[in-house]
User: Fold these one by one.
Assistant:
Number 1:
Amino acid sequence: MTTEDVLNIFEENEALLKGHFLLTSGLHSNRYLQCALVLQHPAVAEKLCAELAAKVEADASIGRIDLVIAPALGGVIVAHEVARALGVRALFTERQEKTMTLRRGFQIKPRERCLVVEDVVTTGGSTREVMEVVAQHGGLTAGAGSLIDRSGGAVDLGVPRHALAVLEVPAYKPEECPMCREGSTAIKPGSRQ
Ligand SMILES: [Zn+2]
């Protein structure tokens, strides 16, 4: 599956938005990938995540995976479907008082090899937070993955990382955002009722 194939799927589902957006990373951008609109179709989610799982499995440097883990909410479906393809468990972390934690009785056993996934990587911040949770529980992050990498491949997590599509989408610090300078206000995507 090429980047173009993936983007076609996003466009078919009106999941590639244009505007002035505040990303989870705190950065502003004129493009937003609303993955939920793609993942609302279980068959599409299954297919995309199976492709990502295949890339991970083909990377000998990642090795065995015992579980897939993602930050809620955005990564939950991706973790679930990648885990289905790999035949392993799917866990998710949640933010509690701004700190990423493992709740709901989820357990990572010492030395378990974890694959950390997300829907979209912009700065890799959320993936890093999940990697810290994995380390706190004695697990090992063997690799990372996302459906989309919008950093143009720039994010370095210190572990092998794969994405179905690598894009270079501009993202600005608020104080450097040209759209803010023109007087418009960044909106949190999906926050409109
Ligand atoms: Zn802005």
Number 2:
Amino acid sequence: MVSTKNHSHKSLEENPVYWVEMTKKLDDFRLYFGKQEIVPIMIGGMGVDISTAELALEAARLGGIGHISDAMLPTVADRRYDTDFVKTKLTQYKYNLENADKTGIKFDLGQVAEATRLHVSKTMEAKRGSGMVFVNIMEKLTMNGPKETLTVRLRSALDAGIDGITLAAGLHLGSFAMIEDHPRFCDAKLGIIVSSLRALQLFLRKTARTNRLPDYVVVEGPLAGGHLGFGMDWAEYDLRTIVNEIHQFLRAEKLEHIHVIPAGGIFTGSDAVSYLEEGATAVQVATRFTVTKECGLPADVQQDYYKASEEDIVVNGVSPTGYPMRMLKNSPAIGSGIRPGCESYGYILDANGKCSYIDAYNREVELHPNEKKISVMDKTCLCTHMRNFKLWTCGHYTYRLKDTTRKGEDGKYQLLSAEHVFKDYQFSTDNKVALPD
Ligand SMILES: Cc1cc2nc3c(=O)[nH]c(=O)nc-3n(C[C@H](O)[C@H](O)[C@H](O)COP(=O)(O)O)c2cc1C
């Protein structure tokens, strides 16, 4: 069970101080990058192509910040732009399909660059409105060559004109150095997601040499979706406490111009206002947008998100990244024993060409030599299942999504528009959520 201190909506109801703030709305605040004025709502990156270009573009059109994700962009490009990056890779490595050793499977850096440039530039060309589009780049996608692949991903996104990069899923101690000689190093907005003050301090210390501070820090608490920057003791932590520690540190170091952007469990406009009143300059949100038409999740999967009860949402260790991950417990990926998809994908292969799913899979194959279909319970093939939307990663408050819409006579919940959810965050007061027309 999660302790009540983690339920920000509960503390809003219980703590009279917050009642005063509830008459305020998020639209009373603005986030400033230099002279640029932004509605302080950032839709977080959700890979693989869950935070689509369409979703990010809506956020930008409405004056906020949207994220695309650079996770598995070669396959995303194949689906969107009719390229054949995955087929080319599979053809090259087909001979290795039955081999347990995946160390020889390398990414073609030229293709990674091309896929990134394609997705980023097509998105940026379509951008309208006064907001921004950033890209979420996860360090944990080590791609059997962590340094060279990450360098190409970061630089190609800048080449293609992205407004900003959010460094995610990792400490990123070397990431600024990878782009410090890029002509857009200073003009693009750069930020990092951290889940502790310590992670932020480490990042600042290691990147001090580049003379470039991050423009913003997303502070992601334990109720967020996707991989968590905590151990299995995540429920012991509380977003507000971590955010306050980071504010105090930045003030003491005279670094308060770095924007602090809390994330994880901010479900209503009033939740968001409570953080802005305390010094945050924007919030990052995601879960509420998973049930929008612009989100990349298939419509039937979105119904599963709506239907979920609190008990259906689990944090487990099946991700081969080593980070705990929150997901719906009926995700088809859990217990699936498919053959590792490294010849096509291979994003989790570490610097030595290893992935813990491969080990788990090979162990089960050895234990059940005569079985055609095996099951692997402790790990999952993250690449294949995320690519096929079979791993339903979600935020803690997914079980509240049903209260944000209407249920039709056919038993189906109505999908929302990104604009509706965005505006609900922007204009709602008194901890209310507006239902669609
Ligand atoms: C379905 C889903 C997928 C996500 N995938 C990623 C990801 O690929 N990279 C990342 O940094 N954060 C990811 N996140 C975290 C969000 O970007 C965001 O920080 C967080 O979920 C905000 O909390 P909320 O969902 O309670 O609003 C994901 C969240 C969700 C709900």
Number 3:
Amino acid sequence: MGATLHDRAGVGFAVMTAPVDDRALLIVGGGRMGEALVSGLLASGRAAGDLVVAEVASSRRAELAEALPGVTIVAEPVPVGSAVLAVKPPDVPRVARRLAEAGARRLLSVAAGVTTGAIEHAAGRSLAVVRAMPNTPALVGAGAAAICAGSATSEKDLQWAEEILGAVGVVVRVSEAALDSVTGLSGSGPAYVFLVAEALVEAGVLDGLPREVAEALAYQTLLGSARMLVEGAGSPAALRAAVTSPGGTTAAGLRELERHGVRAAFLDAVTAAARRSRELGG
Ligand SMILES: NC(=O)c1ccc[n+]([C@@H]2O[C@H](COP(=O)([O-])OP(=O)(O)OC[C@H]3O[C@@H](n4cnc5c(N)ncnc54)[C@H](OP(=O)(O)O)[C@@H]3O)[C@@H](O)[C@H]2O)c1
């Protein structure tokens, strides 16, 4: 490790001159997403000794050292062949440049809104870039992520990224142009579902249920319904029809949801979020 530059207020950033470690995977940024990825990789059998987390905040480094035994926690990125960028979006270009200067050959970025082109440009030389849009359920190992390739990214690089993100949920491949739609659907999606959960709880309370009873029933209803979908019990329309008996209670409830335009509201919500993602990225 060589001299230290001070290009970020109060933060040293080493000029990396040591030999590149090809075995290690470096995760730069030990925030919520960085920690979730490392926890997922450990749970999926990755050796702790092969993982390195670079985190600028010393108090956070202490927390990570306790939460991730055996994982190397450092203040500054070390030279590696492969790295994950889990820092905040404005920090991505600088970190990408330093990793490229230190010999990195491929980067996976989970930063919202930073394009593969911007990362390649910041790197200043050709290297494989994979960009991902993950979502917050990755924090509990049930994420939904989409990935796209940069201009010098191979099938092997995409498989490498799928293995990392696959440790915390499902991963699909899309074109970079589709990432804004992904943001509108699964990136922002957890917030829509939390709103539905809130509304169901309030509705239960309004009809006389104790709040904790309404919460337990609403949350488990969402979990159980989602499990039926992902476990292949049927399409949403078929599953809905199966619980809707003629003239029954569910039909009465669904009529109200349709009368209030819930379906159209979701169409508008996803397209508005995707549009906003395009505006922010452009
Ligand atoms: N959380 C999510 O569910 C989610 C979903 C989709 C996408 N993402 C993306 O994932 C990225 C990380 O999000 P997050 O929620 O994990 O944010 P976060 O908790 O704020 O984590 C970012 C971490 O990186 C550290 N950091 C910044 N610059 C660094 C550097 N040069 N070297 C080492 N560490 C550095 C930050 O330290 P300081 O705070 O001290 O700067 C912070 O601890 C973001 O780009 C975000 O867009 C997150």
Number 4:
Amino acid sequence: MSQAREYRYMIIGAHQDDCESSGGIALKLLDLGRRVRFLTATNGCSGHHLSMGGGLAARRQAEAERVSALTGVEYEMPDFDDGSLMPGLEERKAMIAAIRRFDPDVIITHRPWDYHPDHRYTSQLVQDSSFLVQVPNVCPLTPVMRRMPAIFYMQDDFKKPMPFSPDLVFDIDAVMERKMRMYHQYVSQMYEWLPWVGQLSRDPIPEGDEARFEWLKHTEFTAISAGYADRFRPQLQEKYGAAGANVRYAEALEFCEYGEQLTPEAARELFPF
Ligand SMILES: [Zn+2]
């Protein structure tokens, strides 16, 4: 890899607010002046208990735009329906074209084992696209990539058929507050849908923007990143030495064997923190 190259990173999640699982990594890359694009494979039209369809998708698009304005991350949202994503040919071609247009060095996505079918199929679509992004006769009007991107899975807690295994770990303490600010932009999710569906604290949500943000910072979303720091403590200490013992919040990545296989030097160049 040449030093002069501008590295590009594509984080591919199923829904608005999924890419933020690697939000600390994204913020650190953006701070280095590198380009980061979030691609959500669905339009978000099902993630609510009161509103639905086009109105909800438009609201979630506006929320994603606020995250973009706040951080500088680019956002792309193909118009596949939330809750109905399939790993079909139409979806695969859309994924191949989206990856080629951005031409990333790195892709980060869900693991193919996950409770949500949209997450599983998003991962499947990335895997199905991984070789084909270089094949000129597939989607022939979209210029091919001349190399394979490195592909990684974002950390999760699922255990079967096998738990997440960290190849790269990251101290995100310095950007944790900003990561939570990203989540804070998804009002329809953090303060409405996720509490209703039981995936976030059911404690009463305070009124007012900053009061709500303080509430959010004391929910599972913060606890999850703290849990990863504990779970990956040995790897954090191996990477950061004694300082690894004091890391409060962490993220991690696992290599996907279908992407470019990076040397340790190349991985350090791509993630120099
Ligand atoms: Zn999701």
